[in-house]
Design a protein that fits this description.
The structure is a single chain. By secondary structure, this protein is of the alpha/beta class. The protein folds into two domains: 3-205, Spore Coat Polysaccharide Biosynthesis Protein SpsA, Chain A (Alpha-Beta Complex), CATH 3.90.550; 211-285. Helices cover 44% and strands 19% of the residues. It contains ten helices and eleven strands. It has helices at residues 16-24, 44-48, 64-74, 93-104, 121-134, 162-167, 180-190, 211-232, 240-254, 260-281; strands spanning 3-9, 32-37, 54-58, 79-82, 87-89, 108-115, 142-143, 158-161, 195-205, 236-237, 284-285. The strands form two sheets. Strands 1, 2, 3, 4, 5, 6, 7, 8 and 9 form a nine-stranded mixed β-sheet that branches. It has a two-stranded parallel ribbon with strand order 10-11. Helix 1 links the parallel strand 1 (3-9) and strand 2. The longest helix has 22 residues, at 211-232.
Length: 286
């Protein structure tokens, strides 16, 4: 089966070359690499243009959902694999994806996402929190049977049959940059598509390196929570554990415990995102 790779980007000059080289040099070559640019103002496109294997498409001002949908529309492969401009896939990524579809009769898969070597303490913190604590990528292959955060696929490392994406409407534009990847995996599961978690499909992911980045990501995750609740939950969601965790880490700050300050920042901005998202989509998610 042929594999097309779709990568949405926006100002990824620091890591995009590593991302592209890892795919280009894979043990099995992809049919094509489609880079969909949301309007980069740095050197991302200049770097990407060095590689003839990369097709560059513009989606200026677009969202992650719209950029991926644009890639889906243009892709010629039977399988469409997704990763991000700050991710480095392993050398057998394409072959593992291909073999997984051939051997398991599936409509989509999610792979293991591992924190890349951190560039500073902030990235080490966020990589561990997002990929080891909030989401956990285990060592066992399994068929996904329930709609949960940990069983959802993230577009740092996942793949679907193109026909499945087309028949089910692709990524939902309403989600934009907020949990559009989680939503599509939940929707496909609801629609009876066979999905599997395949740990041998691996990618290393970089993440934020500043306090501002933590705030932005946490706020966006809070908005995502409210949007997912609007479509898949009820009118009211109250997460008492989050408030208990906030109090615990405020006390930890006083005791000067490691990462307590970063935890407080993350939780507060996540809550801000939940409140803002609740207002925007008319749910109560606190």
């Amino acid at each position: 089966m042929n594999v097309s790779v779709v990568i949405p980007v926006l100002n990824e000059e620091e890591l995009i070359e590593q991302c592209l080289i890892a795919i280009i040099n894979n043990s099995e070559k992809p049919l094509e690499i489609i880079l969909v640019d949301g309007g980069s103002t740095d050197k991302t496109l200049k770097i990407a243009k060095k590689y003839n294997q990369v097709t560059i498409v513009e989606d200026k001002g677009g969202t992650a959902a719209s950029s991926r949908n644009k890639g889906i529309k243009l892709a010629k492969g039977e399988i469409i694999a997704f990763t991000d401009g700050d991710c480095i896939v392993t050398n057998n990524w394409i072959s593992e994806i291909n073999n997984s579809f051939i051997n398991n009769n599936i409509g989509g898969l999610g792979g293991s996402v591992i924190p890349a070597k951190p560039r500073n303490k902030i990235e080490e913190y966020w990589g561990n929190l997002s990929l080891n604590v909030i989401m956990h990528f285990g060592d066992d292959m399994y068929v996904v049977e329930k709609r949960s955060l940990n069983d959802a696929f993230i577009t740092a490392n996942c793949a679907y049959l193109k026909t499945v994406l087309e028949l089910n409407g692709g990524f939902d534009p309403w989600f934009g940059n907020n949990a559009e990847d989680i939503e599509i995996s939940w929707r496909l599961l609801n629609n009876g598509v066979k999905l599997m978690y395949i740990p041998s499909v691996k990618a290393l992911a970089h993440s934020v390196v500043t306090i501002s980045g933590i705030k932005h990501k946490s706020f966006r995750d809070g908005v995502s929570s409210s949007k997912l609740q609007k479509k898949y939950g009820g009118k009211l969601n109250y997460d008492l554990k989050l408030y208990k965790l906030l109090v615990k880490n405020i006390i930890g700050m006083i005791k000067q415990e490691e990462n307590a300050r970063l935890n407080v920042i993350e939780i507060i901005w996540h809550l801000f995102g939940k409140y803002y998202g609740s207002f925007k989509v008319h749910v109560i998610n606190v």
